[in-house]
Each structure stands twice: as C-alpha cells, then as structure tokens.
Design goal:
Blueprint: H1 19-40, H2 56-70, H3 75-91
C-alpha cells in the first residue's frame, strides 16, 4: 500500500471580508464598468473642448449623429431625437 504525505505551507488564512467592504468593491467595479462602456460607446467629450465651448449647432449635430445610430433599432425614438435637435438649434436663434 502506498502512502503520500502532503506538506502544507504556512500561509495565513484569508481574512473574511465584511459586507460593507464587498459592497464597496462592487461599487468600484461597477463604476469602472460604466466608464469603460461610456468610453467604448464613443461618448467622451472631444479632447480640448469643454461642453460650454460647444455651440447649439454643434450640440444639435451630435444629437443628430446619435439619432442616426438609433434609426435601425428604434425609428420612433430616432425621429424624436431629430425633432429635439431641431428645437434645440432653433431655440438659440433670435
């Protein structure tokens, strides 16, 4: 009959984490996920431009570009976005 011996290393047991710590880590991971998705969707503000530097025309054009992306999946929503872009652009004209 063969016998085997296992030698264990002297490792400290893992400390049990608290529920609060687990929730904090979950919130941090969720935040990182949202940032990654936001970045992947191309919704970042253009480098060097602040939101206040954009004109109403520029904002309307960005909204129209987003509406074009939505046209295939939800045409009604896309049409609403086009109308909102037009209203926004016209609201700044005197």
């Amino acid at each position: 009959m063969a016998s085997s011996t296992l030698h264990s290393l002297n490792l400290a047991p893992a400390q049990p984490s608290s529920v609060g710590q687990a929730l904090h880590e979950l919130a941090v991971a969720g935040h990182q996920l949202v940032l990654a998705l936001w970045s992947a969707a191309g919704l970042r503000i253009s480098a060097g431009r602040t939101p206040s530097a954009m004109t109403a025309f520029d904002e309307a054009e960005e909204l129209r570009a987003f509406a074009l992306q939505q046209m295939r999946s939800d045409p009604s929503f896309a049409e609403d976005l086009f109308a909102a872009a037009d209203r926004h652009e016209n609201s700044t004209r005197v």
